Amino acid sequence: MNNHAILQIEGVTKRFGGLVAVNQVSFEIREGEILGLIGPNGAGKTT
User: Fold this and answer.
1) Sign of the CA dihedral 16, 45, 39, 22?
2) Partner of 5 for a Cys bridge, out of 25, 28, 33, 41, CB 3.0 to 4.6 A?
3) Of the candidates 40, 2, 1, 8, which has an alpha carbon nearest to the alpha carbon of residue 21?
4) How far apart are CA 23 and CA 13, in angstroms?
5) pLDDT band at residue 3 under the 50/70/90 scheme
6) Could you give the CA distance from residue 30 to residue 17 in angstroms, rounded to a whole number?
7) Dihedral, CA atoms, 42, 20, 9, 1, nearest 10 degrees?
8) CB 9 within 8 A of CB 27
C-alpha cells in the first residue's frame, strides 16, 4: 500500500464570533488511515 498523505492541514483556525472552535490545528491523513474528531456538542466539529 502507498502511504502518501491524501490530506494535509496546516495552521487552521476557525472562529464563530468570539468563540475559537479550533486554533492552529495541523495534521495529515495518509492513505488507509482513519481519523476521528471528538468533542462536545456545538464545538465546531462539522465545520
Assistant:
1) negative
2) 28
3) 40
4) 4
5) confident
6) 33
7) -30
8) yes
3-state secondary structure the chain: CCCCEEEEEEEEEEEECCEEEEEEEEEEEECCCCCCCCCCCCCCCCC
Residue whose C-alpha cell reads 490530506 in the numeric block:
7
Could you give the count of Cα atoms lying within 13 Å of 38 in the half-sphere of its Cβ? 1
Q: Hunting for cell 495529515 — which residue is that? A: 28
